[in-house]
Specification:
The chain has helices spanning about 15-30, 35-40, 50-70, 85, 90-105, 110-125, 140-160, 170-190, 225-235, 240-245; strands at about 130-135, 135-140, 195-200, 205, 220-225, 250. By secondary structure, it is α+β, with helices and mostly antiparallel strands. A hairpin with a 2-residue loop joins strand 1 and strand 2 (about 135-140). Helix 1 runs antiparallel to helix 3 (about 50-70).
């Protein structure tokens, strides 16, 4: 018998909007202080410099404004939990558009300022239940903003990895939303109750088919921190490396998640 479908997690639209705004501001302030030499550094994204990665961050937020400008679709056809699995198909197109944007806007702060202004104006004009015709599918503005926390947190981590000492901070609500969405996506991909995945302090999910745990200590437990989880889900680190580096604690015969990761690939 297949496991019962769990109710989708609810996100506070106002807090999500604030989280996206805050994390975008964190990145903008950090990028504004970079030297030309730092902007030219390579990143862990093949073929992308820091300048191009910064431009991509503005793209991730500008899509909100651009999608609001489009006609509203008749109905939603992409759920929030489906979104992580729909991103890979557009990777090549995104890379090309990112490089074009970085070349056309050589001053990152001007680009960030313009994006920030359009984003604030767009959000002031529409409610959270407004449907957006995004390139991955039609979904509500409220749900799409949750996906923006994933984009911003993942690429904040990419920037921090690329520029020594940059240390862009993570807005707590943005980190929480990104962690929860990707944890819930894992549970949706591998429904079940045999394995408990703990990502304190933000998420606990049960997944993987097998004997369902009912009381006491679960026989199969995975525990990690939010950033390691996001890196695993986004393909920035492998399961094997995270376990070997003691970034993940996994116990039990059904605690190996390597076949399920990354989620966004």
């Amino acid at each position: 018998m297949s496991p019962a479908k769990k109710r989708a997690r609810a996100y506070d639209p106002a807090r999500t909007r604030s989280a996206v705004t805050a994390q975008f501001g964190n990145v903008r302030r950090a990028v504004a202080g970079l030297t030309p030499e730092q902007l030219a550094l390579p990143t862990r994204l093949p073929g992308w410099t820091v300048r191009e990665l910064a431009a991509h961050v503005t793209m991730a937020v500008e899509t909100v404004s651009r999608n609001i400008d489009r006609d509203e679709p008749a109905k939603a056809d992409l759920s929030l939990l489906q979104w992580p699995f729909a991103t890979a198909a557009r990777a090549a197109d995104i890379g090309e558009r990112t490089r074009e944007l970085a070349a056309a806007d050589p001053d990152p702060d001007v680009l960030f300022a313009r994006t920030e202004e359009r984003f604030a104006a767009a959000l002031a004009a529409v409610p959270g239940d407004r449907l957006l015709a995004t390139r991955t599918g039609a979904m509500s503005l409220a749900d799409y903003l949750v996906t923006r926390t994933v984009e911003l947190v993942v690429h904040t981590d990419d920037l921090n990895a690329a520029v020594p000492g940059l240390d862009v901070p993570y807005d707590r609500q943005a980190l929480a939303a990104a962690t929860r969405l990707l944890a819930d996506a894992l549970a949706d991909r591998a429904p079940g109750g045999a394995t408990e995945v703990r990502i304190p302090p933000y998420a606990v999910v049960q997944c993987v088919e097998g004997p369902r745990h009912t009381r006491g200590t679960p026989p199969n437990v995975v525990e990690t921190d939010p950033l390691t989880w996001i890196r695993l889900a986004a393909g920035r680190v492998t399961w094997q490396d995270a376990v070997q580096q003691a970034k993940v604690a996994a116990s039990g015969e059904r605690a190996d998640l390597s076949a399920l990761l990354p989620l966004m690939a």
